[in-house]
Design goal:
A hairpin with an 8-residue loop joins strand 1 and strand 2. The strands form three sheets. This protein has a six-stranded mixed beta sheet, with helices on both faces. It contains eight helices and 13 strands. It folds into two domains: 2-202, P-loop containing nucleotide triphosphate hydrolases (Rossmann fold); 211-276, no CATH class. The chain is of the alpha/beta class. The chain has helices at residues 41-48, 71-74, 91-98, 107-116, 130-143, 160-173, 211-217, 258-276, and strands at 2-9, 18-25, 29-34, 56-61, 64-65, 77-80, 148-152, 179-184, 196-201, 204-210, 218-223, 234-238, 241-247.
């Protein structure tokens, strides 16, 4: 479990990024951490993995304060940064150097994921494109089998087929005791993948709901005209018509359109939260 209580943090004394932020994340879910650029998504992940220190409040990973950076915590948490340095070594040498840091590392799974991404294990990291290197680090991160897998913009640099492979890889490696958090502003890439939506805005969690609850209470439907205004919660124009968010009156689940949901929260989070609660 990850528990964040009364978190305060800022990069300067004059500007606070988070003020009394609270969040609890439970095992067995893939979370989507959404927000505009500059809202602190990457910073929050770094606070979770102990790379930054809270000014006040706490970030607890099970019984460990994240900023204590104790080996027992660090060997069970993997952070995939959006930007990364790479050595001029082979993928096999990279595995030999870093795999031992993670007691549950599965070399067979690493090989399977590299094969899924069509990456040769004998390749040098220096010779790979940005997107190919990202596939290597994604594969390595999943293969660590850490309880906590934090991924910052993992689909940046991936082409459309690779994004599909990423979703397959993540679901193939997911275990019920894991907490996976994916930070992104490319919300379409997470459709049909995440199980819980967290949205950051102005230093606070303004929205946090399970996808199952959203499917149960909301209906996402497409329309050509503007006629269907009955109990309309939100409407977004799309090519060829509109996507509406309306109350689910049929009991039949519709796919949650994450981009539309995100825009609805940005327009009026309070109204949407009141309806869902």
């Amino acid at each position: 479990m990850i528990q964040i209580q009364n978190l305060q943090f800022g990069y300067t004394k004059k500007k606070t990024l988070f003020a009394d932020l609270n969040l609890e994340l439970k095992p067995g879910k893939i979370y989507g951490l959404l927000g505009k650029n500059g809202t602190g998504k990457s910073t929050l992940l770094k606070l979770m993995m102990g790379g930054l220190y809270p000014h006040k409040g706490s970030v607890m990973i099970e019984d460990h304060a994240a900023d204590d950076r104790k080996p027992a915590m660090l060997q069970d948490i993997y952070y995939l940064s959006e930007d990364f340095d790479h050595a001029a070594i082979s993928i096999a040498a990279f595995q030999s150097a870093y795999g031992p840091f993670y007691p549950k590392f599965d070399s067979k799974k690493f090989d399977e994921l590299l094969s899924l991404f069509e990456i040769e294990k004998g390749s040098s990291l220096a010779d790979l494109s940005y997107g190919q290197r990202k596939k290597v680090y994604i594969s390595f991160g999943i293969a660590t089998q850490t309880t906590y897998l934090l991924m910052d913009e993992p689909t940046n640099g991936l082409d459309i087929p690779s994004k599909s492979q990423f979703r397959k890889a993540l679901l193939r490696g997911f275990k019920e005791d894991q907490i996976i958090i994916i930070s992104t502003h490319q919300v379409r890439d997470l459709n049909q993948l995440i199980e819980s939506v967290i949205i950051l805005e102005e230093g606070q969690i303004v929205f946090s709901k399970d996808v199952f609850d959203l499917e149960e209470k909301l209906d996402f439907n497409r329309e050509i005209s503007e006629e269907n205004l009955s109990n309309l919660i939100f409407r977004q124009a799309v090519p060829g018509g509109y996507i509406n968010i309306q109350p689910n009156t049929t009991g039949k689940a519709s796919e949650v359109e994450l981009e539309v949901l995100f825009n609805a929260v940005m327009q009026d989070a309070k109204n949407l939260n009141q309806y869902l609660n």
